[in-house]
Fold:
Amino acid sequence: MPQITVEELRKSFKVPERKGGLFSSFKSVVKRKYRTIHALKGVSFKLDEGELVGYIGPNGAGKSTTVKIMSGILVPDSGKCEVLGRVPWAQRQEYVRHIGVVFGQRTQLWWDVPVIDSFDLLKDIYRIPPAAYRRMKDELVETLSLQSLLYMPVRQLSLGQKMRCELAASLLHQPAILFLDEPTIGLDAVSKIAVRDFIRKMNSERNVTVILTTHDMDDIEALCSRIMVIGKGTLLFDGDISRLRNTVIPERVVKIDFFASPLRLDYPFARLVASDDNWAEFRFNPTETSAAGIIELISRDNQIKDFVIENPPIDEIVARIYSEFDL
Amino acid sequence: MKAYLSITRLKFAVQLQYRAAAAAAFFTNFFFGFVRVMVFQAFYAFSSLDQPLTMEQAVTYTWLIQVTFRMQPYWGDTEIMQMIRSGNVAYELSRPLNLYFFWYCRLFSSRLMPALLTGIPVYITARFLPGGYALSPPDSAAAGAAWLVSLFLALLLGCAISNLITISALWTIAGDGMQRIFPAAIMVFSGALVPLAFFPDWSQGLLKLLPFSGLMDIPFRFYLGTVPASDILTSGLLQLTWIFIFILAGVWTMNQGTKRVVVQGG
Structure:
């Protein structure tokens, strides 16, 4: 039985709307115009225990709305959502005990007291038994290297340090599911890697189901086996990364270094994308030809020094989807 | 239960960090108390009629207003209201708690602690001012005890009102509306502007029944001894009734509010 079942989920918001300027401000005093925004137009999916899913889509696509419904914060207009056998918004108080949430753009830590005070408060909020709390806290402090941060007031932490503490805070009560809404937003490369390693570890060692929304495709590539792409309130794709590649851009990339300027660069089945004095990049479709065949052909005319074969960057794939669906 | 105690404790600890704020509040409260005492002295000096309170009583009443100033519900919980405006309230909603009572406990600490930190120094200082300016001791030991009980109920009532103001921000986002209406009503109907005893006779019954008298006037009358300490039962019941009504209103508003919540800023 799936851990999370979402069926035909719909949610719309009414937003007041007016043209800019003073006159229309006066007009809106008398008569207010509302525009209905359909954030979710019937989204359905199922997740099993222990999955690590990337949930991506452009800004305003409905990612956060879905996450907030699944975490019991928002009530949908219609549709079904069952997580751990419960309806999140209906049994909110009991349900949220079993989930952890991190909103990358917000903070749950108390701003002006040491981090440890926020942790202790969470211990009481979630009624974590002292022994379990100590064990989990020690483990989190160890894996996220928080030793030196625990006794500092939150306001003095950097963004990356704060995010590590936020992650720890949302896992203290050992939730079965972790919702991460843009956990790497604004972080530097080192912090991003630390956060990713940690997410991977929690997923593989503790079998925590993770739903991750992000705009950082490196997050997706590093972590997720399954991706869901949402746009304009509907689910456009749901499957693993390789299938996403094959359906959107089935091409592979070959980058070749030459010993000298190449003599010939036009070949059948290999499209030249860019080239320089002693360097060239081709794309080919693996269903039409093989990588070995291409290298062999090219090496007949040119002296190859080195080559790599890789997938097109995931960013490009996602940009292609967004533009195909006119998002 | 432990979570509610824990939040109360943590909020206490946070309040204790703001020493400069407490000192500043002491000086402003003291200064304004002094100004108002002088206004009363001028009033009594030029009044030839019999007044419902003696000058000493009016001066004491004024100091008591200053002593309890920081526990009064002139504001909602500004931090929570900021969370609602910014959308940070999403985290509050993801906790396995009764949010009404969680926020109530926060308010309880953030009203009680400042009231103690500035109220006690103001009380002591005002007690030792020269005659005519001084805060008199309670009318009797019984009066003092009744005052403390009534004051504690006033604190609970104030938190219930504050919490309702806070929760109203789930509707209005800015939360300024309630935040202005309530203080205006509190100012006039609690006795904070002019002791309720000075209001016309025909209004006395109504003023006492309104929730606001329970914040200041009822406890202060016990202190002055203008009502007997034995009245604590009836007036306490009145305060408790209003506490109950405001809590019910707050819980209902909260339940409606969380059903239609929109998290600001994505």
